[in-house]
Specification:
Radius of gyration: 21 Å
Number of strands: 11
Structural class: alpha+beta
Distance between the termini: 58 Å
Order of helices and strands: EHHEEEEHEHEEEEE
Strand content: 15-25%
Helix content: 10-25%
Largest sheet: 3 strands, antiparallel
Number of helices: 4
């Protein structure tokens, strides 16, 4: 590993009592906070020579070393699958993902995903997502269709990830609902967490607040009502 892959930081008094992941995301803005957390879990970041936790508070005088690992080789097979490309340049590509296709490989599934198609379509993809998620900045569920932004290089991947994390990217979802809505528009604010029984689903039950999810009803011929 070359010297340029290693970054070192000395914590000042002004930065003391800050969470390690927040400190590094602010001090090294080329890394998103989620990327920093991944590097910590993988043991690529040390504080005074010791493996830390993301939530540890830094202290004045702490010496932090960050060694970025080399990009993993992509081992997935490219597949000739037609893509609906909404936009593409040298840095990114925007795909209209259809329902019924997974974004990236998972347990027991190494083919038939959007990543396999992208490997055939694109000459280069960001390596930050690892060998199974090259270029993937955000995801959509298998049965959800919509726009998916894919990074072609690491610089754009980091910048896009930061935009999604800071919520400067606006996302609009259209959904079909059963029943009648009491109001034509409004906001739903509730804590969400993973369903206790159906682990692939989410449920409202003492989880983290999900912010204000605005909805707008466009009922045909009837007044919308919230059930």
């Amino acid at each position: 590993m070359t010297q340029e892959n290693r970054r070192e930081f000395n914590v000042t008094t002004a930065d003391a009592r800050t969470r390690l992941d927040r400190y590094l995301a602010r001090t090294a803005p080329e890394f998103s906070r989620s990327r920093i957390q991944t590097l910590i879990r993988q043991g690529h970041i040390t504080v005074n020579g010791v493996a830390p936790r993301a939530r540890d508070m830094v202290r004045a005088g702490d010496h932090i070393a960050l060694v970025e690992p080399p990009v993993e080789a992509i081992e997935l097979a490219p597949e000739k699958v037609a893509l609906s490309v909404l936009f593409e340049d040298d840095d990114l590509i925007v795909i209209n993902k259809p329902a019924g296709i997974s974004v990236h490989p998972g347990a027991g599934r190494k083919s038939g995903t959007l990543v396999n198609a992208l490997l055939s379509h694109c000459k280069d993809l960001s390596g930050i997502g690892g060998k199974e998620r090259p270029g993937i900045v955000h995801r959509l569920d298998r049965e959800t269709s919509g726009c998916l932004v894919v990074a072609k290089n690491d610089f754009v991947h980091v910048d896009l990830a930061r935009q999604f994390a800071s919520r400067t990217v606006s996302k609009i979802y259209l959904a079909l609902v059963a029943g009648k809505l009491r109001r034509a528009s409004g906001s739903i604010v509730a804590p969400i967490t993973r369903h206790r029984v159906h682990r692939q689903k989410m449920a409202i039950a003492g989880g983290r607040p999900n912010g204000a999810n605005r909805f707008q009803s466009r009922a045909r011929g009837t007044t919308g009502k919230l059930a």
